[in-house]
Amino acid sequence: xxxxxxxxxxxxxxxxxxxxxxxxxxxxxxxxxxxxxxxxxxxxxxxxxxxxxxxxxxxxxxxxxxxxxxxxxxxxxxxxxxxxxxxxxxxxxxxxxxxxxxxxxxxxxxxxxxxxxxxxxxxxxxxxxxxxxxxxxxxxxxxxxxxxxxxxxxxxxxxxxxxxxxxxxxxxxxxxxxxxxxxxxxxxxxxxxxxxxxxxxxxxxxxxxxxxxxxxxxxxxxxxxxxxxxxxxxxxxxxxxxxxxxxxxxxxxxxxxxxxxxxxxxxxx
Length: 269
Fold this sequence. Notes:
Blueprint: E1 5-11, H1 15-25, E2 33-39, H2 46-50, E3 58-62, H3 68-77, E4 85-88, E5 94-95, H4 99-109, E6 113-123, H5 126-134, E7 143-145, H6 147-155, E8 166-168, H7 169-173, H8 179-186, H9 190-199, E9 203-215, H10 229-241, H11 249-268
Parallel strand pairs: 1-2, 1-4, 2-3, 6-9
Antiparallel strand pairs: 4-8, 5-9, 6-8, 7-9
Helix pairs in contact: 8-9, 10-11
């Protein structure tokens, strides 16, 4: 019998981080979930880590070839499952202990919501994570947003964590997605545009609180090194197209402020 939530974890050579992730998944107040590990042809022993968690329902698959980070993340998002809800959880991130319970309730109470997401709380190491996790608060009521409203949240600086997104599985199966196109046009910035494309005429639920614990990569974070000017301009065009049509004064001001900031960031980098 399928679980209510499928947790798909794309992995590559970070077994210690996966072990930490699984440890915290055992703390979830909701247990109707299964876990699938997608190993992107690693050198490290992931099955040995899985054996340490006999109480979790974990399956393991290993890619035939290395898909690299973005490719493996998209594979995890579209990985076939019978569960009604699915999350592609990054192996170095940790979720709030009540997150899955809260998310399932949001879906059940809001049939128009295609996915649920949250903001990120950054941590530096295990000690920092333990301190922040132990002082977590309760998760409040989410914001139910349409496409333009979701874009506005991004433009005002809300850091929506891709690894926090729980999808209705049927919306992923019902629509064709050229993920290679997203990566070519937006590079690693494609996560936001991909999410916006899923909203269509429906809604998204944003938990406007930092309930996703995300590892701070610090100076070792080179994910954005390959971003080009074209990627940034393409991203700005996409945001503009998904705001009010024509742009009202509020959206125009918001868009221009965001565009200025991203251009300054691009050229300073």
